[in-house]
Design brief:
- The protein contains six helices and no strands.
- The chain is mostly helical and 135 residues long.
- The protein has one domain.
- α1 runs antiparallel to α6.
- The longest helix has 24 residues.
- The chain starts with 5 loop residues before the first helix and ends in a 23-residue tail after the last helix.
Length: 135
């Protein structure tokens, strides 16, 4: 099944992807508080990793409407999931976000014909098997 207007569906899904990335960035900013309550505390390397990841996630939300935006967001799911190494609760939080992202990719594939890249535009059909002439 493809969307009747793939361009419009692509924009809507780009907005959904941007929203997910912003929420991931905000959730990543809550991790230092959880780590600081542990007995070991928070190191400078961990804090730098988390802050840089949060900033990159939020900034990548701005490129979701570009051709490679979804690919960038997909790649960023890996470092987000790896925050579980810093705080075990993040395995569940990041895992939930990764599942939401995978669902978004599935919806993109169903509506646009491809999970990555620009939506495929449909060529109008004149009924005889060939493309309709353009006026």
């Amino acid at each position: 099944m493809t969307a009747p207007d793939p361009v419009r569906a692509g924009r809507a899904l780009g907005g959904a992807g941007a929203a997910i990335l912003v929420l991931e960035g905000i959730a990543t900013l809550f991790v230092p508080r959880g780590i600081a309550q542990d007995g070991d505390g928070l190191t400078g390397v961990e804090l730098t990793y988390l802050v840089v990841l949060a900033v990159v996630l939020i900034l990548s939300s701005g490129v979701q409407r570009r051709e490679r935006g979804v690919l960038i967001g997909t790649v960023l799911q890996v470092p987000l999931l790896l925050t579980g190494l810093l705080n075990p609760v993040m395995w569940f939080v990041a895992g939930a976000f990764v599942l939401i992202w995978l669902y978004l990719l599935q919806i993109r594939r169903e509506l646009l014909g491809t999970p990555f890249g620009a939506p495929r535009t449909q060529v109008p059909d004149d009924g005889d098997g060939g493309a309709a002439p353009t006026p």
